[in-house]
Amino acid sequence: MAENIPYFQVALNLPHAGRVARRILLLLPHQDSSADPLRNTALSLETLLAPYLELDDNPGGTVAQKVREQAAVLGRKLVDQIEQQKVGHDRLGQCVRNLFECLELGQEGAVISLRAGENPKSFQRPC
Q: Which of 46, 49, 67, 126 has its CA at 20 to 30 Å from residue 14's CA atom?
């Protein structure tokens, strides 16, 4: 991982991660096939985080950490699929970065978002 890339480090925020997952789903290209692996991964991510959307805070105990890890795995898979299908763009990449920031993985998000199409010169990126 590129350690010299600036990134935002924020506290775990599963409710906001759920909102970002919904945005990602909306930003993906619409395909008629229900067998689209990219859309299915994004839907799995949104479904995982949906129960936390209306909460004021993260769930207690080890639940938050388990959900965080599952969401990170799905986020990485999503980026692999975005790359494979060549559908990345700046706004989608920004949302991927935001997702990882909400999962307390800001450094990884700053790197992986570029693979999802975020413009490295975007004003939204940390400097």
A: 126
Q: What average pLDDT is seen over the chain?
A: 93
Higher-confidence residue: 44 or 30?
44
Task: For residue 61, give the nearest of 102, 14, 94 by alpha carbon.
Answer: 14
Instruction: Return the domain boundaries, the chain.
Output: 14-115
Determine how many CB atoms are found less than 10 A away from the CB of residue 55: 11
Q: If we measure between CA atoms, which residue out of 41, 18, 19 comes closest to residue 87?
A: 41
In the numeric block, which tokens belong to residue 92? Answer: 């989608």
Question: Under a CB-based contact definition with an 8 Å cutoff, are residues 45 and 75 in contact?
Answer: yes
- Joined together, the tokens standing for residue 122 give 């975007």
Residue with tokens 């986020």: 75
Single-letter amino acid, residue 123? F
> Is the C-alpha dihedral spanning 83, 42, 10, 89 positive or negative?
positive
Contact call for residues 92 and 109 (beta carbons, < 8 A): no
